[in-house]
Design a protein that fits this description.
Order of helices and strands: HHHHHHHHHH
Structural class: mainly alpha
Number of domains: 1
Largest sheet: none
Number of strands: 0
Mean pLDDT: 78
Helix content: over 70%
Low-confidence stretches: none
Distance between the termini: 76 Å
Shape: elongated
Amino acid sequence: MFDIGAFTSGLLTGLREGVEAALIVSIICAYLARTGNGQHLGRIGLGVAAAVAASVALGLVIFATLGELKTPWEQVFEGTTMLLAATVVTWMLFWMRRQASSVASQLQRALERVLTAGSAWGLAILAFTAVIREGLETALFLVGQATAATHTVGAAGAASVLAGAVVGLLASVGLGYGFYRGSRRLNLGRFFRWTGILLVFIAAGLVGSAVHEFVEIGWIRLGAQTAFDISGTLSHETGIGLFLRALFGYSSSPEVVALVTWAAYLAVVLSLYLRPLPPRPTLRPEPAPNAPA
C-alpha cells in the first residue's frame, strides 16, 4: 500500500538534502570549467558516485539491523535512531544557515589548493568529502523516517519514504544541472528557508516518536499518561491523520511527555532557526609597515 504522507516526507528530505549536495557539486564543476580544467570533471563524478554508494550502504545496514532486534532492544534502537536523526538534521540546518553565504568561496579555495598541488585524484577526494556529509545525514534521517513510517503503515511506509526520497534526489540532480548551466530562477535563500522549516516539523515528529518508544518499554514513566484522545475526530490510523502521522509524527492520543517534548523542541528550534543572523564582522585591513600612524 502506497502512503502519501511517508512519500511526501521522503520527498522533502531527498529534495532538501539533494539540492545542497547538487549545489556543491555544481559549484565545483562550474569552477573547473571556467578555469580551463574541464578535463577533470570525470574525477568529480567518481568522487560523487563513491559518496552516494557509501551513503546508501550505510542506510541499508542501519535499516536492516532493525529487523534483527527483539523487544525491548528494537524500541531502544528505533528511538535512539530517531533521536540521532533529529539531532543530525537540526545541526545540519543551523550549519547550512550560517555557512550558505561562504560555501562557494570555501570550495573554490579548496579547488585551488588541489590544482596547485597537481593531484588530479585530489579532486575526486574533494568531491567525495563535499558530498558524503550530506549523504550520511540524508541516509540517517531517512532511516529515522522509514522506521517511524513502518510503525504507522507497515513495510509500505518505509517503501513510500524511499520512493519519495528517490524522486526528491532526482529532482535535485536536475536543479544541480540548472545551477551548472547558469540558471538563476530559483531563489535559493527562500528555498532553503521554507524546506528548513518543514524539516524542523519533521524532526519534531521524530523526537516525539522516539519519546513514545521509550514510554512503551517503560524507560520513561513520568508523564506517560495519555494527554488527550481525539481518535474519533482525527485518528492517526486513517486518512488525513495517517498522512500527518507519517509526515510530522502526529498522534491522536499522545502521551503527555511526548506531547510536551514535541512542543518544546518545536518552539525552541523553530524560534532559533527563524531568528535573523547577526551581521558578519568585517576585518579591518592591516596598515602598511611604513605607513604613518
